[in-house]
Amino acid sequence: PGELDELNSTNSEQSDMDTRTITLLEQLESILSLKIGDGNNPGELDELDSENDTLPIEYAGNVVSNLSYVLPPQVFTEYFISLVPLLKKLMSKESSDLLRAAGLAITGESAKGLGENASGLCEVMFSLIVPLVEDEDDTVRNNAVFALGEIAFYGKESMYKYYPIILNTFSQVVTKEQRSKVLDNIYGALARMIITNIEGIPLDHVVPVMINYLPLHEDFVENLTVFKCLVYLFEVGNQYMVSLLEPVIKASLATLSDKRKCYEDGVKEEIIKLLRMYKRDFPDKCLSLTLPENLSKLFNEI
């Protein structure tokens, strides 16, 4: 075919893809409207009291979050705006624990796909998420912490004024939280906030507590963010990366030695980078460390 034919074919394929995407988005919105209702219909909210009943919601949520990675930010933003009223109802106190957890997951997973439009929308979602960080349900708390960390990260400057509220909320949760997964997500969220706006974080209060908590116990997906944060803190010369050298190195080696905790190449790269910087800048301190035999051998190989 000639160039014009190829161009027409490409435009046709793009149009078909756009049509399929719009149809899919409409179907997803219909699923959410059916299950949680809209302005005209009450939905099936009161009937959703089992895990099987929420499968359509979880399916819709997974597709929405996946679309946030592939759609252009402006296209995804327009769709997300249309979902906000449904998400508000999903996260309301009248919803079941499973529905609120699903709404929080959709919100957190969607933040990245909003691109430059994240600022305004993250502010809108902030007031919905914060109260749920202290919810009685473990999964709701966990997803609220995750969503809060994501909107703080992608909302950037628009979220800086909320840092004191977020930090105070996390502080309240840490003192009484028993679930490792929730705590892992809190430190992952704090790591995102440090990377985004280090000046907005009281490092003297946050960094020592975070370091002494490591390694993460359950939600190992957060390891990538946490170790990126530690590398960043080392590079900017944070004092606790020196004074707490031993727990940082031990946590790093414990994570690196466990395939469950270090299953992403990116995590391994960040840890090795951090450990090599320690060996380069503080060789004597590194040599004087007392480590278990397996971790000592691993450290020597780096």
TrEMBL record:
The listed locations are:
Cytoplasm
Keyword Protein biosynthesis among UniProt keywords: no
One GO term of the cellular component aspect? cytoplasm
Mainly resides where?
Answer: cytoplasm
Source superkingdom: Eukaryota
GO BP: protein import into nucleus
Record's signal peptide = none
Q: Which UniProt keywords apply?
A: Cytoplasm, Protein transport, Repeat, Transport
- Mind telling me what this protein is named? Putative importin subunit beta-4
Organism whose genome encodes this protein: Schizaphis graminum (Green bug aphid)
